[in-house]
Specification:
A two-stranded parallel sheet has the order 1-2. The chain has six helices and two strands; from the N terminus they run ααβααβαα. The protein folds into two domains: 36 residues; 76 residues, no CATH class. The protein has 120 residues and is mostly helical.
C-alpha cells in the first residue's frame, strides 16, 4: 500500500528559516528544539519518498529530504522565458501530472503506478 500526503507550502523561506533555527538551538544544547517542518514530517516512515513541485526552481524545496533523510525528487522550472498555455508549460518543465506521478514512482517504495505515459 502507498500512503500519500500533501503539503501546501506558502513560504519555503520561512519554513527553512525555522528548520535552521531549530538546528542552531540544538547545537547550543536545546535538544528539544523542533521546527515546524520536523513536526510535520516526523510521522512519515523513513522509506517514504517525497516529491516537491514548484513553479519555481526545484532547489527551493529540495532540502525537505534532508529534514529526516527521505528520498526526494524535486521538480520545478530550471529555465525561464518560455511561453505557452499553462498545460504546455507544465509539461515542458516536467511539473505536470504525469511527471509528478513518475517522480512519485521513483521516490517511493512499492509497485509502480500503472497507466502512465512515457515522459517526453
Amino acid at each position: 500500500m502507498r500512503r500519500t500526503g500533501l503539503f501546501a507550502i506558502t513560504s519555503a523561506d520561512r519554513l527553512n528559516a525555522g528548520w535552521q533555527a531549530a538546528e542552531r538551538a540544538r547545537q547550543r544544547g536545546n535538544w528539544g528544539a523542533l521546527s515546524h517542518i520536523e513536526r510535520l514530517l516526523q510521522p512519515l516512515s523513513r522509506d517514504c519518498g517525497l516529491v516537491t513541485v514548484l513553479d519555481g526552481h526545484p532547489a527551493t524545496l529540495a532540502w525537505l529530504g534532508s529534514v529526516h533523510g527521505h528520498r526526494t525528487k524535486a521538480l520545478g522550472v530550471e529555465h525561464f522565458g518560455q511561453t505557452g498555455t499553462i498545460a504546455d508549460l507544465y509539461r515542458h518543465h516536467g511539473i505536470d501530472t504525469n511527471a509528478i506521478v513518475h517522480a512519485a514512482n521513483a521516490a517511493a517504495c512499492g509497485r509502480p503506478v500503472r497507466h502512465l505515459r512515457a515522459p517526453p
